[in-house]
Amino acid sequence: MKLQQEVEETHTRYAQDYVNHLLETVVHRNPYETEFHQAVKEVFYSLIPVLAKNPKYIEYAILDRLVEPDRLITFRVPWTDDNGKVRVNRGFRVQFSNAIGPYKGGLRFHPSVNASIIKFLGFEQIFKNSLTGQPIGGGKGGSDFDPKGKSELEIMRFCQSFMTELSKHIGQDTDVPAGDIGVGAREIGYMFGQYKKLIGAYEAGVLTGKGIGYGGSLGRKEATGYGAVYFVEQMLNEKDLSFNGSTVVVSGSGNVSIYAMEKAMQLGARVVACSDSSGYIYHKDGINLDTIKRLKEVENRRCRDYVLEHPDAVYTEGCSGIWTIPCDIALPCATQNEINHLSAELLVRNGVKAIGEGANMPSTLEAIDIFLQHNVLFAPAKAANAGGVSVSALEMAQNSARLSWTMDEVDAKLQIIMKNIYRESMKASEEYGVPGNLVIGANIAGFVKVADAMLAQGV
Ligand code: NDP
Ligand code: 2IT
Question: Going by CATH, does the domain composed of 221-384 fall within 2.102.10.10?
């Protein structure tokens, strides 16, 4: 018994040393890419128990290989603005891993986009996509193009130029992009049109998040937000809690945020706050979602305009202040690192019971530690926001079969997928000695499938 314990401790120390050394290499080889370092660190530390139990993963350098993308493509995106001035942006696509399916992941258009952001998102996508149980690998892309203040025609010309280069690297069996921040059905439509023109064929499965009339899936628009709420509801139910009667704060007011609010409200929650990058609204009696949808989805306006129509609501400049509002459940659905240790401490002090990450990596590593230390139920992004890419995979399946499912069919499948992700993550957390720690559980459950596929396919 004692001998076995000693052997286990030696394996754990060996795995720890391996991970620490590899992390140093990652930082050294990818200087200044702080978001990428953060994402890798979170995954690597969670994998120590798996590596200790399965030395094969170390022997065959699975992590060394996973942390180096198959390729990172960067390209010039020239376009002309409405005044005839030539502008140049930078485009990216990272193809991280196709061990279990074609590269799959969104495109982000935001001025903050750089190699570090694209690589953190692409790296996380490997594990998230594996968790969905669908045959999809990990990739991500985007540009530092800022859609704010651009005309419809400028956006169309940008998307066409972006796709002119991206088209050389994607395809329904190689790499399938979709939306993310700044990229919705409109942008996907312009990119799809350009791709079709360039290759001279109707290859519906090359992009997901398409419009419903030309190959899109019902329920894709709602999938990330709905999926996140389904996942959190599952987590709450295990503790005899639920959205019903809870006070909820949701950051952001884009695609993920709007449909997370909608599903939370349908389940009986009072959603009291949401935000954009300028500031946040607090509406004590509950946010009016019709107003938010009109302002954001139709009129392209700011959250501050909400109070013009709802004078009993309060608007405050600055987006991080949203975490000062007391709530039972917080759903960060805007962007990375929006909850730091200070916001996490405030949320805990104000009695938060659960966090559901709709955005990618919205909590810093310090913030996650604070939530876990205080036994706040924590649904990590890779698991909680996997509903979007899951329905993207369902869109690919419908495109291959040349048919379309009803909203009810897609929603039923999404609910099953989110339940499975919860169960798999929970099971892995129990199997590896950290019951209920879904950060570790989700990382392990996502990793094992990819690692085994890599072993099976050789170096
Ligand atoms: P949208 O572009 O539709 O909305 C983004 C929202 O977040 C907007 O309200 C935006 O405000 C706000 N926001 C963006 N950047 C910042 C910033 N730097 N600081 C403060 N607020 C910011 O994007 P999505 O809703 O699609 O994406 C939101 C998050 O969800 C991202 O982390 C994305 O990676 C993740 N995600 C998205 C999926 C999808 O299917 N779309 C799937 C899984 C995860 P403003 O309008 O002022 O910029
Ligand atoms: O982060 C994500 O999972 C997404 N932006 C969705 C990716 C997809 O391919 O649907």
Answer: no
